[in-house]
Amino acid sequence: AEGGSPPPAARGERPRFRRPDAVRGIYLNAWAAGSVARSNAAIELARRTEINAVVIDLKDASGLVSYRTRVPLAREIQADTSARIRDLPGLLRRLEAGGVYPIARIVIVKDPILTAAHPELAVQDSAGGAWEDGKGVTWASLWDRRVWDYHVALAREAVEAGFPEIQWDYVRFPDGPMSERERIVYPRADGRDMTEAVAGFLEYARAELRAIDPEVQMTADVFGVTTSASRDVGIGQLWEDFIRHVDVALPMVYPSHYWEGSFGFETPNAFPYEIVRAALEDAVRRSDTIPGAGRVRPWLQDFTLGPPRYGAAEVRAQIQATYDAGIEEWILWNPGARYTEAALEPAGGYPDGWEPVIRIGGRLVPVSKRDEVLAPPADSTVAPAADSTGTPAAVPTGTSPADSTGAPVPTPPGAASGRTTDQSGPGGP
Fold first, then answer.
1. Strands 24-28, 330-333: parallel, antiparallel or unpaired by DSSP?
2. Could you tell me if residue 99 is left (phi over 0), alpha (psi between -120 and 50 degrees) or otherwise beta?
3. What is the mean pLDDT of the chain?
4. Is the pLDDT of residue 3 over 50?
5. So where are the chain's domains?
6. Cis preceding linkage at 7, omega within 30
7. 273 Cβ contact partners less than 8 Å away, ≥ 6 residues apart
């Protein structure tokens, strides 16, 4: 298309990426990925630190496709008219040269552009018309195979362009208070359980992508609470359904998103190590019961939502908790694509005699001392949210620990104290 990326390279010409033994990545919204300066900054961050991968928005929760696509339905509904990544092949070539592994993130059912153009594909309202959530957003229905085919076509294009991994997001049904969701009608459900649609899509998409490239990795994001919940938390996401149908499941175990009382902590956000470790240990335990289960690679929180303010100690605490749960992979999420470099291990490793400080037990302590301060919580369960979906209804309340006042945290050599890599775009994704 005029002014956009050239067509994807032929299969023999597309970039080739080596999959890291353990993916340790960051998220780039389309603005950051589409900026040469900001995407180069991400490549430089990978050169300086342990980062080896980037997750790139090819289609976000607004319904926008981030590049000029050749998928007919996307062009019909003009989903790519404000494409923010103007040179996708060039971006992939730069990532290849920098040794950075790219992952294509594609949001599925939260798609107001698709549902505005084709309301018959939307979740319906019992009062008539398309159902809207509390923010006035319409959702596509995961029961409709046309929704599946649209997104698989975008994923196919991404694989043909050179992406070695497709990451699905919003593979689920709408969340929110029951007062809103009780009006929802799914015309094609025919009384079936929502988990059938989720598992069905994942199975279908995996087969379609493997037909294009047997080596392509298919991964999917999942609510963090699913690692511990015994039911589908009201949105069709059940841990076992994900882990048996994907190469990697990515639970979003952000401490700020857990309800008061989860795992026995009144203010989960103030205990990043404990929350992440407990959630991931549940994930590993359940995955171990599934023959051929995929790997676990959590999304970790590099943003502040409620006290305490998240900095290097809080981010590193989550990374260490991931390792202590027996998992070597992780990806950091910041909606504006700004990351705390001081939380990351330098590319050459930490120098002798130096170790990071993490938040654990409500205190800042050297990582080697974590077992001395870690006390088991009184409870090991996740408290349900007020609307029984597993989604927190509000940011947990309570005061931050006494040492969460901005006390200085030791900075790895080569990183400026408190430094972040700013790759944010106008308004984020």
1. parallel
2. left
3. 87
4. no
5. 24-422
6. no
7. 317, 318, 320, 321, 358, 359, 360, 370, 374
Distance CA(345)–CA(415), nearest Å, equals: 10
Q: Which residues contact 206 (CB under 8 A, 6 or more apart)?
A: 218, 245, 246
SS3 425: coil
Other CB atoms within a 10 A radius of the CB of residue 82 amount to 11
Residues in the chain, total: 429
H-run or E-run covering 45: helix 36-48
User: Is beta strand 338-340 parallel, antiparallel or unpaired with respect to 420-422?
Assistant: antiparallel
Distance CA 220, CA 158 (A): 15
Which pair of tokens denotes residue 244?
């048996």
- Which residues, at least 6 apart from 239, have a Cβ–Cβ distance to it below 8 Å? 222, 226, 227, 229, 249, 283, 286, 287
Nearest to 339 by CA among 318, 317, 310, 363: 310
Q: Fold for domain 24-422?
A: TIM Barrel (3.20.20)
Phi-psi region of 389 (alpha: psi -120 to 50; beta: other; left: phi over 0): alpha
Placement of tokens 């990426």 in the chain: 17
Strands 330-333 vs 338-340: parallel, antiparallel or unpaired: unpaired
CA atoms within 13 A on the CB side of 214: 0
Q: Is 53 helix (H, G, I), strand (E, B) or coil?
A: strand
Which pLDDT tens digit goes with each residue over 381-424? Answer: 554 433 333 333 222 323 222 232 233 334 344 443 333 333 33
Measure the N-to-C terminal CA separation of the chain; round to a whole number of Å.
23
Mean pLDDT across the stretch 76-102?
97
Q: By the 8 A CB rule, do 216 and 370 touch?
A: no
Amino acid letter for position 319: I
In the chain, how long is the greatest CA-to-CA distance?
A: 66
Question: pTM value?
Answer: 0.86
Query: What is the amino acid identity at position 334?
Result: N
Q: Give bridge partners of residue 357 from the DSSP assignment.
A: 366
Locate 283 and state its tokens.
């994930």
CA-based torsion, 35, 45, 217, 283: positive or negative: negative
Joined together, the tokens standing for residue 180 give 């809103």
Compute φ and ψ for 201, nearest 5 degrees. -65, -45
DSSP state of 49: B
Q: Say how many C-beta atoms besides its own lie within 10 A of residue 326's C-beta.
A: 14
Cα separation, 315 vs 377, in Å, equals 21
- Cβ count within 10 A of residue 398: 15
